[in-house]
Structure formats: structure tokens, C-alpha cells
Amino acid sequence: MAGRPYTYLNxxxxxxxxxxxxxxxxxxxxxxNKPKVLAAKEHGIDPKLxxxxxxxxxxxxxxxxxxxxxxxxxxxxxxxxxxxxDFDVATNATPEQVKRLFRRAFLxxxxxxxVHVMFGQDLIEVTTFRGAAxxxxxxxxxxxxxxxxxxxxxxEDAVRRDFTINAMYYDPASQTVLxxxxxxxxxxxxxxxxxxxxEQRYREDPVxxxxxxRFAAKLQFSIDADTREPIKVMAPLINNVxxxxxxxxxxxxxxxGQAMACLLQLRKQGLHHGLMPLLDVVLEQPMGERFVTLALxxxxxxxxxGKTVSPxxxxxxxxWHQVLEKWEAYKTAGELAIPALHxxxxxxxxxxxxxxxxxxxIGSDMRDIWAMQPRFEKRVGKAPYKLLExxxxxxxxxxxxxxxASGEIDSEIGEWWTSFIEGDExxxxxxxxxxxxxxxxxxxxxxxxxxxxxxxxxxxxxxxKPAAE
Length: 469
Ligand code: ATP
Ligand code: MG
Description:
Elements: H1 3-24, H2 26-33, E1 36-38, H3 40-43, H4 52-63, E2 68-71, H5 73-79, E3 88-91, H6 95-101, E4 105-108, E5 114-119, E6 122-128, H7 154-160, E7 168-171, E8 176-179, H8 183-189, E9 191-192, H9 198-204, H10 207-219, E10 222-223, H11 225-234, H12 243-254, H13 259-268, H14 277-283, H15 286-304, H16 311-332, H17 337-356, H18 360-372, H19 383-389, H20 393-405, H21 411-422, H22 425-431, H23 445-448
Helix pairs in contact: 9-11, 10-12, 10-13, 15-16, 16-17, 16-18, 17-18, 18-20, 20-21
Bound molecules: adenosine-5'-triphosphate (ATP) and magnesium ion.
């Protein structure tokens, strides 16, 4: 009891001091310009986890008189003992100077150019140190910085990064880590902390709030109270961010290998509500929750095993129960099953395309997966063979299995297709003679092939002429 007012007072004093330091304490600024330098035995990075290509890039730049470091997420992951999925390099060389040093180097982006240095399929992204954020940089009416692309010193580059743990630089040559904002301490404490004043950083770029959620869930870090607190209030600012950027960040979140944890964290921080229609749907629809939970568990497992995940499959799963609902409504209104499904898909896709800037390719993959579903129910004649030729069969079939696992449809249909896909000619022909014992769900079977037209059951040993392929 007695501790409470004291803690509150403490927080207020800390906030007050931070405010003063942030505005006019030159000494504090000066110490921030000097990083803490950690030697190999202090930081313990395993050099074997460092990409040879990243080393080639830093070495070449350094040999030509420039500063060059591995930076950002890669350093964070190295410090956590995790093999980074990609390596970024920061340098004081300009993009043009970088480009001249490498055979396969490409300038990307118009406003703030970065250089992609390629080694086979491997890509190292090289950025020039960015300068201090300018007060007169153009902003939108909510304070979001629209453009601020000046080059600068390394300490200025560090201050512009989002979290303390993302603002460290590693020099593979000397094996030293430069830590400008207490990132090492936060890594050890497993704390995610925004650099600077969180309110201000979220206002400049509201996507940082989504990044808080992603990193906290992915790294299983706690969120520092000052970093966490403003999010609930500032969440609606995400609405003003161009949807393509929100989509990119959402995709990173969903493909982080901790998608479910990320979505739960989004809900906890109040970031899902009314912001992204997709998430409203996903998290507030009890019927679809089981389906989505399975889909995300599946995705997380694939990512953790280093397998690829298709964004189309992922979004098709997230939105399936919305499609089902609308599909039902169109059928109730008198539409035939197949056109009703297409109308439902149109509705869901157009709503999401607007809100999330779903890329055309992803949208068409989603439609293919959904449209294939009723076709799995036609288990007579040539139809199943036709489906085998479909080059999206795998995605459609995996989706079918999810529907079975979630209890939406009888698992018998999934098992039938597993046998049909894996079977040889004779097995397939036999399967076509087996009368399905599935319960009707969203079945289009009656419409596609009335049961009475079904062939009589035959013995598996009897020689059957395989249905035409
Ligand atoms: P991941 O492992 O998921 O790629 P990452 O930290 O490398 O994590 P990126 O999105 O690749 O994340 O960004 C690279 C670095 O750029 C970050 O570590 C951070 O320093 C900086 N950064 C990225 N986005 C922002 C942002 N919105 N605001 C400030 N700094 C950012
Ligand atoms: Mg990265």
C-alpha cells in the first residue's frame, strides 16, 4: 500500500527529468553521441553466425576508407544467439560510393536511396547513416513524418532507429559492438524500449506501434511501461498510414513464426480494434476462431521449420469464415452455390483490398483457394482428375485439411482426398466408387452430382477401367 504513491511519484519524477533531458541537457546528448563499445568477450557474439557476404561488404567498404557495420535486427539476433534471417549494413559512404565498389549493386528507392548488394540469391541491404530528424521535415496533419531523408553521423543514425535493441552496430573486423542507447542492457533484461519519447516516435511513424507488438511477441520480451502506455491512446493514428505500409508490416507480423502470439498481443494493446478490418474479423468471430488458430499454428510451424508460407494462403485462411458467412447469405437469398461463393469472395476481397492494399496477386491466389473448395466435394466422374491437374491443388488441399481439422466439414472428405492424391490408378478408380458418408456442410455436391447418379460400389479387386484423365 505504502509503496504505491511512492512508485507513482517516482514515475512522474522520471518523466519530468526525461522531458528536461530531452529538450535541453547538452551533456546527456553528448554522452548519447558516444557509444558504449563492447569487445568480443563482453558481447559473446558467435562469429560463425555472421554471414560471409555481410563480412565481404563491411570489409570492402572499410578497405576503401569508409565506416561500415552490420546493424539493426541482425545485431540483435546475434546477441540473442539466433542466426539472423538477413543482414543489413550501415555506412558513411553515399549510395553512389557504395555502388561503385560492388559488381552487382543496385540503387533502390528514389527519396532515400539504399543499395542492394547481391551475391547469388543473397541480398545485403546497405544504407547510408541517416541524419537527425529535422523539425521542419514535412508532416501530415497528425504529425506523421512524410519525408526526412538527410544523411548524417552514426550517432544520428542510431537515434532514428526504433528500439534500443535495434540500434546497435557490429564491426566484424574488430568484433566490437557499438551500443548507443543501452541496447545491450535491454537485451539482457529482455525489455523492448523505444528510443526517445515514445509518444513522439509513434506520432512520427505510427507503424512503430505495430513493431512493438511484433518484436515483443517474436522475441518474448516484455514491453517497457513508457513504451507500452501510449499505444492504447495513439492506436487510431495507424488509420492515417498508407495501407500498403500497414500491409507490409502486417505481413511481417503474420510471417514472424509467432503469428498467433502477435495477434493476441495486438488485441492486448488495443491495436486491432477498428484499425484493420481484417483483424476485427479474425479476432472477434468465435466461429472462425478455431479455424484461424489452426491456420496460424500451421503457419508458425512452417516458418519455424524454415519452410515457405504463401501470403495468399494465409489471408485466405484469415478471411475464410467471413466468406462462409456471406456465401450462406447469398445462398439463402436464392443464388446457386457456386455463383454465391464467387459473390462472397468478391465482397470480402474488395473490402480488404481497399483497407489493406492487398496486392493483386495475393487476392487472386486467395480466390483460387476458395473457389477450389466446392470442387473437392465432386467426387465422381472426371472432376477429381481435373482437380489433380490444377497447379494450385496443393494449396487448395491444405486448405481443405484445415477445414476438416477445424470441424467445419467431415474429416472423411480430407482423408478421401489424401488417398486420391497419393493413390495409384487402381486406387483412384476404386475411391471413385466409394459412396461418401460425409455429413452435408456447405455442400454443393447435390448440385454438382446428384447421389442417385453415383456409380454402384464395386470391389477393389475388380478390374476397373480408370476414369479418363
Ligand atoms: P527482422 O528480423 O524482423 O527483419 P529488423 O529489426 O531487421 O527485424 P527491419 O524491418 O528489417 O527489422 O528493419 C531494420 C532496422 O531498421 C531495424 O532494426 C531498425 O533499426 C530500423 N527500422 C525499421 N523500421 C523502423 C521504423 N519504423 N522506425 C525506426 N527505425 C526503423
Ligand atoms: Mg531486417
